[in-house]
Amino acid sequence: MDPLLGFIIIVGVLIAAAFNYILNRASGSDPEDFQVGPPQLGIRCDCFLNTLIIGSILVLALSASSYIFETRTELHIVGFIAFIIITAAGIYGRTIRHREWRELGEILERAVPKPPDHPYPESFDILIEDEDEEYD
Questions:
Q1: Does the predicted model carry a pTM greater than 0.85?
Q2: For the segment 57-82, what is each residue's pLDDT rounded down to a tens digit?
Q3: What pLDDT score does 31 carry?
Q4: Inter-residue long-range contacts of 91-98, CB under 8 Å, 24+ positions, other chains counted
Q5: Could you give the CA distance from residue 68 to residue 66 in angstroms, rounded to a whole number?
Q6: Are 21 and 89 in contact (CB under 8 A)?
Q7: d(CA 74, CA 113)
Q8: Is 4 in contact with 74 (CB distance < 8 Å)?
Q9: pLDDT tens string 105-136
């Protein structure tokens, strides 16, 4: 393989790994974003399979440009190493995000006092005055 093409592949793998890390870190997402069904069930759809997507796309791109490799074995080795590096970066980002969620939950438990068992009387009336209501 030409050294220039090797350098381009290395840079591409590093960019894809950084993107997969940032994508799976997803600092703006909350655990509730992945809630499936009622909250009482506690089912979340936040699996680690999402970390495989970028690595798979890069391996497909490498296989589409397989003519730049001298042997098929070289293609397999480069593809496997690229896939492992990109997927590991995504898994690392995902574990950091889960750790941040755990820490935030612990901080909120310490900072926010627990509500009393019965904060309200058994029955109470709510009066709503609607100013926009038209009378005939």
A1: no
A2: 999 999 998 888 889 999 999 999 99
A3: 63
A4: 91/24, 91/48, 91/51, 92/21, 93/20, 93/21, 93/22, 93/23, 93/24, 93/25, 93/26, 93/51, 94/24, 94/25, 94/48, 94/50, 94/51, 96/25, 97/24, 97/25, 97/26, 97/27, 97/29
A5: 5
A6: yes
A7: 60
A8: no
A9: 788 888 877 766 665 556 556 666 666 556 55
Task: Look at the block and give the residue holding tokens 């068992």.
Answer: 117
Domains of the chain, residue spans: 3-111
Q: What is the DSSP letter of 117?
A: S
8 A C-beta contact, residue 98 and residue 29 = no
- Assign residue 37 a region (left: φ > 0; alpha: ψ between -120 and 50; beta: otherwise): left
Q: Which residue has the tokens 């309200």?
A: 120
